[in-house]
């Protein structure tokens, strides 16, 4: 038991490199380094004023007409998904070809290039695993596509810009069908090949981002300014959280918490790799005006009311 504990702590020591060059241990699975400890261990920036994730209270969301539709480039290109990796024993990450994939519009200030996507999960399809929550509801998983403002030369520079990154978040909901959607069956078939920390396999020409986002209406989303959800929690993210979840079968969701490990040894599995929700601290979450409040319809409604009043 003791030997195992030492091994686990060592895993955490390969933590985040801070700006002064020192490293700090962080993890999801031990009380000594889980997310409740990040604000004190890594105060810069994990104790900041615009941290993520957050709980989205739909009754408090404000309409913002500047939240127009997105333009997605390369999301239909299977050569843009390069490889899949057991990322430091903390998540599963797919590297993206940023010369092929990018996003603009959607109220963003310009073009953002796609760098990678990764996932957060709990411990199986009936367990909570998303980072953002909606009216307190936590979904089984959440997918994050990380984009960097195209004018920045490096991630280091982007992390110093309050809007240097644009992350697109998608909730994943469990369904009772088996092995669906097809693209998720394809993606999860690689998990057993990346069971150990650091494992990487090529996935080129097999999967498209559009295929993974099947069924999501990408014109309906929440917007707020926040941070990375892992140390050092840099406050550089324009967050987009889509309202529609991706529907994935339970059997495929279960593969995440049963296939990939935090180390090169057999235990433990990566589970519950999500951060708890952070205080809004005065921030307001925005979304598109609902169709009922478009000027034309608001006018018609007023006309109708007047008619009845008169
Ligand atoms: C992972 O396992 C290896 C091999 O057993 C061990 O030497 C190492 O200390 C462990 N590392 C971490 C980061 O837990
Ligand atoms: C995180 O660690 C704290 C103690 O530091 C513990 O009380 C809490 O239950 C842990 N939470 C999770 C989700 O592991
Ligand atoms: C992706 O969509 C664009 C725009 O509709 C189209 O021009 C392009 O040929 C498509 N690419 C692939 C790989 O299907
Ligand atoms: C996850 O669930 C499995 C079985 O469903 C259980 O054995 C295991 O202890 C759970 N892991 C955690 C970290 O709760
Ligand atoms: C799946 O089926 C089980 C049992 O048949 C049922 O309890 C559960 O509500 C169903 N879940 C969904 C998401 O439909
Ligand atoms: C994934 O999809 C590609 C393209 O449709 C196919 O060639 C490949 O065999 C699939 N891989 C798996 C593991 O299902
Ligand atoms: C997506 O949502 C928008 C706004 O609610 C709606 O106008 C549009 O018809 C929807 N698209 C699809 C394909 O359902
Ligand atoms: Zn994430």
Automatic annotation (TrEMBL):
One of its GO terms (molecular function) is zinc ion binding. Its cofactor is Zn(2+). Residues 24-289 form the Alpha-carbonic anhydrase domain. Keywords: Glycoprotein, Lyase, Metal-binding, Signal, Zinc. GO terms for cellular component: plasma membrane. Its EC number is 4.2.1.1. It catalyses: hydrogencarbonate + H(+) = CO2 + H2O. SMART domains: Carb_anhydrase. Residues 1-19 form the signal peptide. SUPFAM superfamilies: Carbonic anhydrase. Belongs to the alpha-carbonic anhydrase family. Reversible hydration of carbon dioxide. PANTHER family: CARBONIC ANHYDRASE (PTHR18952). This is Carbonic anhydrase. It comes from Pygocentrus nattereri (Red-bellied piranha). The lineage of its organism: Eukaryota, Metazoa, Chordata, Craniata, Vertebrata.
């Amino acid at each position: 038991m003791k030997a195992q504990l030492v091994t686990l702590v060592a895993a955490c020591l390969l933590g985040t490199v801070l700006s002064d060059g020192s490293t700090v241990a962080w993890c999801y699975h031990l009380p000594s380094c889980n997310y409740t400890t990040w604000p004190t261990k890594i105060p810069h920036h994990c104790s900041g004023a615009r941290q993520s994730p957050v709980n989205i209270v739909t009754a408090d969301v404000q309409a913002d007409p500047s939240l127009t539709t997105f333009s997605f480039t390369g999301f239909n290109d299977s050569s843009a998904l390069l490889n899949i990796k057991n990322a430091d024993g903390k998540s599963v990450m797919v590297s993206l070809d940023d010369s092929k994939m990018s996003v603009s519009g959607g109220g963003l200030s310009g073009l953002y290039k796609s760098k990678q996507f990764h996932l957060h999960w709990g411990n199986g399809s009936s367990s909570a695993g998303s980072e953002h929550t909606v009216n307190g509801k936590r979904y089984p998983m959440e997918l994050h596509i990380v984009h960097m403002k195209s004018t920045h030369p490096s991630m280091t520079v982007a992390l110093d810009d309050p809007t240097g990154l644009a992350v697109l978040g998608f909730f994943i909901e469990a369904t009772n069908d088996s092995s669906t959607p097809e693209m998720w069956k394809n993606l999860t078939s690689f998990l057993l090949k990346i069971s150990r920390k650091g494992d990487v396999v090529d996935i080129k020409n097999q999967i498209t981002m559009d295929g993974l986002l099947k069924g999501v209406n990408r014109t309906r989303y929440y917007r707020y300014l926040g941070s990375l959800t892992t140390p050092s929690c840099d406050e550089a993210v324009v967050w987009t959280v889509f309202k529609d979840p991706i529907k994935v079968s339970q059997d495929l969701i279960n593969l995440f918490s049963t296939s990939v490990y935090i180390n090169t040894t057999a235990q433990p599995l990566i589970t519950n790799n999500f951060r708890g929700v952070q205080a809004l601290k005065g921030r307001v979450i925005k979304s598109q005006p609902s169709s009922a409040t478009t000027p034309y319809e608001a006018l018609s409604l007023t006309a109708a009311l007047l008619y009845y009043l008169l």
